Amino acid sequence: MQVVASTHPVARQSALPEEFVMETSLIPSFATLAFAVLVLVAAKLAIKIVPQSENWLVERLGKFHRKLEAGLHLIIPFFETVRYKVPIQERQLPPKPINAITLDNVTISVSLAVLYRIVDASKTMYRIANVDDAIMTIVNGTVRSVIGKTDLDGVQSNRRQLSEEIEEDLRAVSEEWGILLTRVEILEVDVDPETKQAMQLQLNAERNRRALVREAEGKKQATELDADAQLYAAQKQADAMRLKADAEAYAVGVVAQAISAGGASAVEFEIKKLQAQAVQELSKGDNAKIVLVPTDVLSSLSGALSRLSGPRSSGG
Length: 316
Known about the structure:
It contains 8 helices and 9 strands. The protein is of the alpha+beta class. Among the domains are: 1-88, no CATH class; 91-191, Band 7 domain (Tetrahydropterin Synthase, Chain A). Strands 6, 7, 8 and 9 form a 4-stranded antiparallel β-sheet that branches. Helix 3 (131-147) crosses helix 5 (159-176).
């Protein structure tokens, strides 16, 4: 059996409302999906998380509105945009050599280390196009001005003071650009070859002069010390002689007192005792052939022998 499709106008009209109902039912689902996408996009544009090392600058309708620091922030989507993300970490400019002329007309090349950080990102981004080039331009002029007031020796010996002067001159300008100079250091001071050769000759001459002066001062000090030593030795010898003379005078005085008190025989005995000891010392020598004996010693010995022999003869 064959089924023949009806081509009656009434049947065709009854089929159209079903397709229309299906299409109209899809419209709310598309609208919901578009709204959800719009909400997600708006949320993504509105929620901003700023890292610790940056500051973000927000513009509203093309005009600077506010600064976002580290943390979570909300902005108005489609009306506010983040225009700049500015790092606030400390930076260092590349140490480029700067040519300058000192007070004594010597051309030198100075290399600086300039450290800075951004403290006001809005001033840095809206007041100056390239802050690094601007700082280097000001640094060049300031360095030439400061070094032009100082001679070459002063530049070599007063680097710390010159760095402080350069930093002080740059601080006033840097505040207008929203930056803070944390440190300015002179790394190297170089001169042309001719000046360097002349400085080397001058340095050698100065070293020779100092060597001669030190040698002369050493000889002078040695002479002074030798003279002081001789004077000290002479003073000590004089003191020793004075003490010896005082001791001898005291001994003579004691002997004189002993003689005056009736001790002449004792003194005579001591003198003879010393004479006998002297004769004994002379006789000990290997080369001594003749011993000289004082007459008073011989007379004393003969007297003593006679006194000893007298009792024996009388006893016999």
